[in-house]
Every structure is written in structure tokens, then in C-alpha cells.
């Protein structure tokens, strides 16, 4: 049975990981565990509707949200910038207002930083940020932290490297905000041109032990988690710059050989050339597991937002 903690998610938007406490994560992890065990009837959102609005491409996030909603008995409406009246010039504000008339909770992915916060201010229903520009991707962090906790049995005390595009990768920022609730050592490994945006993490710098470097090799032997990210080609103003940094870090067999026995490799996906397919069968590779957990962490979040005590006694 889920120990009853006050449900801080009920009817609340989730636009930034900065708004989540360690207790919030623990509640989500607890509910997710129960959902994975599936030893109860979780049709707690029957008759409720999720409205998905995706103005950028998505495979995992959108479909795991749909799959999560159906797992807890609800249904989904979905639109995109291509399919909606955005094509005719309708504003984001009007799109949000309309879809919130037909839904109980909305999920928004949009290329602009601040888009989710803006949507949450005009929507009459809770908004979940499914990716806002280069700013944040909170539900990815919930699944990332859940995966780390599940696969390494803890988060405190870990040595975690975040590798790749730290400038434009929004999952990186949300993950750092989430990790700042834990006692971890973080190595930020990137090409010089893709270093972390210092101003976006100024307030959590003191909470985390951070080291910035271009050299993964200097730390690889000692890491518990290697969180690999894709170079975000679509966010480069100058495509020449992209070709200069493409392929900077490739987690191939020569890297795998240097890893600690129980270390894990994560990636929010999609991957390009940063993890070759032959690594998928390595015992360190947990990125598909991570993608699978995304369905259950999102079901936990949706259920908590839509029902005050739906998971109680389950
Ligand atoms: C990520 C995103 O959209 O930020 N994808 C995802 O949701 N798993 C990562 C990426 O696109 O590189």
C-alpha cells in the first residue's frame, strides 16, 4: 500500500523541476513502483482526458504520455502545429484555451523557452511541460531519476557524468535541478563550444559538487552513471558549428571497457552516433529500460495530478 503522503501534485501544473522537492520525487517513485507491479486496479482516471499539444517532434514523450493515460483508464486527444489551426495563424494562447475546454490536463511541447509557464498562466487546467525550448523537460527528469534510483538502488553518493550537448540539451538542465535535491558529484563533460549555460544553473551551483571538463576519459573509471545526450542539431544557428562538434563523444567498446562494474549508461533518446547499436546488449546499457520507465512515471504523475487520493489503498 502507498504510504499516504500529502498529494502535492493534485491539480497543479508542472512547468519546472525547480518546483519539485525530494519528497515529491519520493512520492512519484513510490507510486511508479506500484504501477509497475500492477497488483491492483489502477483505472483511477476513467472518464478523464489528456490533451497533448506537440509543436516539436516527439516519439517517446508523446506516446508514453498516451500509453500512461490509457494505463490508468483515461483517454487522450492530441494535436500538433501541423495539424492544428496554428497553420492558419491561431495564437498559442487561443490553442491552449480551446484544448483546456476539452481536457482535464494538458501536455505541451514547444520550441520556446517559457512556453509552458506562459500556458500555465492562461490555461484553466494543469499544464505539464513536455519540453520548452532549450530550457527544461521535467517529466524526462522524473524518469531519469527513477531509473537511477531503481538501477543503482540509490541516488545520494553517486558520481554522475552528463556528457554531450550541455548548452542546448534541455534534459540536462531539468536533470541538474532534480539532482540538486540529492547529495551527488556531477561531471559536466562537453566540447568547449557546448558548455553548460552558467546563468541557468547559478542558483544550484552551491548545492551540487560540479566539475566541468572536455575529457570524459579523465573520469570514466570512477563513474556510477554516464548520462549521454544528443548534439541538438536543430538548435544551432550556424550548421557549420554543428559539424565541428558532431561525434565528440562516442560510447563505444573502448569506453565500455573502462567502466566500473555496476555503472549504468543512460540517454534520454533519440540517439544518433553517440552510442553505437552494438552497445545495447552491454549490461551497462539502461537507456531502453529508462524509456520504458517513462510510461509508468508519467502515469504516476497524471494520476496524482488528476486524483487527490486515487492511489491511496492501492
Ligand atoms: C529529448 C528532448 O526532446 O529534449 N527527447 C526526449 O524527450 N526523450 C532529448 C533530445 O531530443 O535529444
Structural description of this entry:
With 314 residues, the protein is of the alpha/beta class. The chain folds into two domains: 17-136 and 292-313, Aspartate/ornithine carbamoyltransferase (Rossmann fold, 3-Layer(aba) Sandwich), CATH 3.40.50; 138-290, 3-Layer(aba) Sandwich (Rossmann fold). Helix content is 33%, strand content 15%. It has nine helices and nine strands. Strands 7-6-5-8-9 form a five-stranded parallel sheet. Helix 2 (60-71) links the parallel strand 1 (49-54) and strand 2. Helix 5 (138-152) crosses helix 9. It is globular and about 50 Å long. The N and C termini lie close together (6 Å). The mean pLDDT is 95. The structure holds N-carbamoyl-L-aspartate.
Helical segment tally?
9
Number of domains: 2
Looking at this structure, what is the CATH superfamily of the largest domain?
Aspartate/ornithine carbamoyltransferase
Strand line-up across the major sheet? 7-6-5-8-9
Annotation, overall tally of beta strands: 9
Summarize the structure.
The protein contains nine helices and nine strands.
Lay out the secondary structure.
Blueprint: H1 22-37, E1 49-54, H2 60-71, E2 75-80, H3 92-102, E3 105-110, H4 115-122, E4 127-132, H5 138-152, E5 159-163, H6 170-179, E6 185-189, E7 209-213, E8 225-228, H7 239-245, H8 253-256, E9 264-266, H9 287-306
Parallel strand pairs: 1-2, 1-3, 3-4, 5-6, 5-8, 6-7, 8-9
Helix pairs in contact: 1-9, 2-9, 5-6, 5-9
Bound molecules: N-carbamoyl-L-aspartate.
N-carbamoyl-L-aspartate binds at residues 60-61, 131, 137, 140, 170-171, 230, 268-269.
Amino acid at each position: 500500500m502507498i504510504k499516504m503522503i500529502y498529494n502535492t501534485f493534485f491539480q497543479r501544473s508542472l512547468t519546472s523541476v525547480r518546483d519539485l522537492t525530494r519528497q515529491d520525487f519520493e512520492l512519484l517513485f513510490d507510486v511508479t513502483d506500484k504501477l509497475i507491479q500492477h497488483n491492483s486496479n489502477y483505472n483511477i482516471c476513467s472518464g478523464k482526458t489528456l490533451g497533448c499539444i506537440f509543436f516539436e517532434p516527439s516519439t517517446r514523450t508523446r506516446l508514453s504520455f498516451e500509453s500512461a493515460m490509457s494505463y490508468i483508464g483515461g483517454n487522450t486527444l492530441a494535436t500538433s502545429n501541423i495539424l492544428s489551426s496554428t497553420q492558419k495563424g491561431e495564437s498559442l494562447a487561443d490553442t491552449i484555451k480551446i484544448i483546456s475546454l476539452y481536457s482535464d490536463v494538458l501536455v505541451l511541447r514547444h520550441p520556446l523557452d517559457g512556453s509552458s509557464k506562459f500556458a500555465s498562466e492562461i490555461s484553466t487546467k494543469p499544464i505539464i511541460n513536455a519540453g520548452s525550448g532549450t530550457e527544461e523537460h521535467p517529466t524526462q527528469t522524473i524518469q531519469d531519476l527513477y531509473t537511477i534510483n531503481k538501477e543503482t538502488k540509490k541516488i545520494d553518493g553517486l558520481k554522475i557524468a552528463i556528457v554531450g550537448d550541455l548548452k542546448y540539451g534541455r534534459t540536462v538542465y531539468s536533470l541538474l535541478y532534480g539532482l540538486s535535491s540529492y547529495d551527488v558529484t556531477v561531471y559536466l563533460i562537453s566540447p568547449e563550444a557546448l558548455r553548460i549555460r552558467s546563468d541557468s544553473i547559478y542558483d544550484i551551483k552551491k548545492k551540487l559538487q560540479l566539475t566541468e571538463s572536455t575529457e570524459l576519459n579523465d573520469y570514466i573509471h570512477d563513474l556510477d552513471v554516464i548520462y549521454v545526450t544528443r548534439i541538438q542539431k536543430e538548435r544551432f544557428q550556424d550548421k557549420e558549428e554543428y559539424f565541428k562538434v558532431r561525434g565528440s563523444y562516442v560510447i563505444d567498446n573502448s569506453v565500455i571497457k573502462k567502466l566500473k562494474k555496476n555503472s549504468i549508461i543512460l540517454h534520454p533518446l533519440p540517439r544518433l552516433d553517440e552510442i553505437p547499436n552494438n552497445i545495447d546488449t552491454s549490461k551497462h546499457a539502461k537507456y531502453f529500460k529508462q524509456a520504458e520507465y517513462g510510461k509508468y512515471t508519467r502515469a504516476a504523475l497524471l494520476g496524482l495530478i488528476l486524483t487527490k487520493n486515487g492511489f491511496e489503498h492501492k
